[in-house]
Specification:
AB_hydrolase_fold; eight-stranded mixed beta sheet; alpha/beta; Rossmann fold; about 300 residues; Peptidase_S33; disordered N terminus
Length: about 300
């Protein structure tokens, strides 16, 4: 773990954070390191999760300061009743931009956060200097990737029959306490790593600290994607996007990387890097390759 000049671990300093007030008064947790330089603003995955970018911040600390934040109703941000829409989350991201005094910002989004960062760039291209799109699923309909993902999930978790059986047991419970929720999440997230020996350890790190998954947020934004993604209008908007975009994939992600072709094929200013030995969180399994890709963009 990297340390600041005063000896405080960087991730501990980030955990304190500060409050960003959205235009409807909801308070969002956010953090950026001390020091100058144009930061890279990070959009975490989910929907309904929280910032898990401590390793990314440490990986880039000597070259690029980062802004981390928890999305509405998630993690360390204020619990609220939504609304759970992409437009609302785009407005929240713009509040983060204003709070840190950024005229334009470089954006990195991971998984659902890649979709959010792309949505922001489409809404406000003049406010984005570059976009890094990590482990997304493209702009096609769910049918392009979700059935393959589901099959891959069961196959990869099924490599350990005990883990698959335990996940199914937890999934079937009508109610789960915090310990059961954390265990269920770690088992589910373990499929995201190509290194099967270390997969569960990596997944347990994702669940520490634990803030609880915002299931209402998750359901609503996933349903919105099913209605609005995969349209000719979205494809046309991406074809007009005059922002440099870097797409970073882990080749061993169980979401089919061919789904991302739908985005890569239409963007006018795009570069793509595929890390062959990495899964859904490429900075965990190929930190050197991930760092090279980001700093070269």
């Amino acid at each position: 773990m990297t340390k600041a000049a005063d000896g405080v671990p960087a991730d501990a300093r980030a955990a304190a954070g500060e409050a960003v007030t959205a235009d409807d008064g909801v308070r969002l947790w956010a953090a950026r390191p001390d020091g100058g330089g144009d930061p890279l603003v990070l959009c975490h995955g989910g929907p309904g999760l929280w910032d898990m970018f401590g390793d990314v911040a440490a990986l880039l600390a000597d070259r690029t300061p980062v802004v981390r934040w928890d999305q509405r109703g998630c993690g360390r941000s204020e619990r609220c009743a939504g609304p759970w829409t992409t437009a609302r989350f785009v407005a929240d991201l713009d509040a983060v931009r204003r709070h840190f005094g950024l005229d334009r910002m470089a954006l990195l989004g991971h998984s659902w956060g890649a979709q959010l960062a792309l949505s922001y760039a489409l809404a406000h291209p003049e406010r984005v200097s570059r976009l890094v799109y990590v482990s997304g699923t493209g702009i096609g309909p769910d049918a392009d990737w979700h059935p393959v993902y589901t099959a891959g999930f069961l196959a990869r978790l099924g490599e350990s029959p005990e883990r698959l059986a335990r996940w199914r047991e937890l999934e079937a419970l009508p109610e789960r306490d915090e310990a059961a929720e954390r265990e269920r999440a770690a088992l589910r997230w373990s499929v995201e790593f190509e290194d099967r020996e270390c997969a569960l350890e990596h997944a347990r790190r994702m669940a520490e600290p634990w803030f609880g998954v915002n299931q209402a947020c998750n359901r609503a934004l996933n349903e919105e994607r099913k209605r609005t993604w995969g349209t000719p209008g979205l494809r046309a908007a991406c074809a007009r996007l005059d922002v440099p975009v870097l797409i970073v994939d882990g080749a061993r992600d169980i979401r089919p990387r061919t789904a991302v072709d739908s985005l890569a094929a239409v963007l006018p200013r795009v570069r793509r890097v595929v890390l062959p030995a990495a899964g859904h969180l490429p900075w965990v399994e190929d930190p050197a390759g991930f760092r090279r890709a980001i700093l070269a963009s």
